[in-house]
Amino acid sequence: MKITLPDDRTVSIGKLLCIGRNYADHAAEMEREVPDAPMVFLKPATAVIRDGGTVHLPPQSRDVHHEIELVAVIGKKGRKISQQEALDHVAGYAVGLDMTARDLQNEAKEQRHPWSVAKGFDTFAPLGPISPATAIDNPQALTLRLEVNGEVRQEASTEHMMFPVAELIHYCSQIFTLMPGDLLYTGTPSGVAPVEHGDELYASATGCDSLRVNVQRST
Ligand code: MN
Questions:
Q1: The CATH number of the domain where 152 resides is what?
Q2: What is the CA(108)–ligand 1 centre distance, in A?
Q3: Backbone angles phi, psi at 31, to 5 degrees
Q4: How far is the CA of 12 from the centre of ligand 1 (A)?
């Protein structure tokens, strides 16, 4: 799948770098410790859907949760990127959803298995319209807000991230070469909850155009 960056370059979506437990209040609701370094997992590019799309609930899960997240869209290749230069690698920001099959994730945690299945289903990474990075003064001062059927479920400021965007880029780039078209899902605040067939999700972040998706049982 391709995306168009704010500078009009069209690139293939690369890696989805996703951060777990990056807000203390979400770690607490999951009854988990706050990690002392960013916790990174990957999703496949095939999980991405865009505004107006449909999240399909897979038959393998009975408990799919929404997680609203700020997404940094990488626009410049780099490795071992310093924190000072990190935000120069961000082409734009978008609001996104890290859809999670919580029952499969809990099983995986118990069995010490990876999260790829719980996190990686098709349609499990909705991505909103991309705003140019130049339009966002400070990615750590945005309000994330998720409504399900018109009711607010998650609302928080990105100032509460344990590891801010620049630190996440620095950290991830010690491991992975970052490429234009990579997406960094920066973690969710508290308020995660199940979605159901027929739900309408409306996600917003300050300075970004909103994201609307609906939820359907997979046939
Ligand atoms: Mn998440």
A1: 3.90.850.10
A2: 15
A3: 55, 45
A4: 22
Is there a contact between 38 and 172 (Cβ–Cβ < 8 Å)? yes
Whose CA is closest to 101, among 69, 145, 56? 56
Report the distance separating Cα 219 and Cα 212, nearest Å.
21
Look-up of token digits 């159901």:
196
Q: What is the phi-psi region of residue 74: left when phi exceeds 0, alpha when psi lies from -120 to 50, beta otherwise? A: beta
CA of 41 to the centre of ligand 1 (A): 9
Is pLDDT larger for residue 5 or for residue 218? 5
Residue 136 scores a pLDDT above 90: yes
Split into its structural domains, the chain has a count of 1
- Distance from the CA of 1 to the center of ligand 1, in angstroms? 21
Ligand 1 centroid to 98 CA: how many Å?
A: 5
- Those residues whose C-beta lies under 8 Å from the C-beta of residue 51, and which sit 6 or more positions away, are 126, 128, 129, 209, 210, 211, 212, 213
Tell me the CA–centroid distance for residue 188 and ligand 1, in Å: 5
Measure 21 CA to ligand 1 centroid, in angstroms.
7
Q: CB of 74 within 8 A of CB of 91?
A: yes
- pTM to 2 decimal places: 0.97
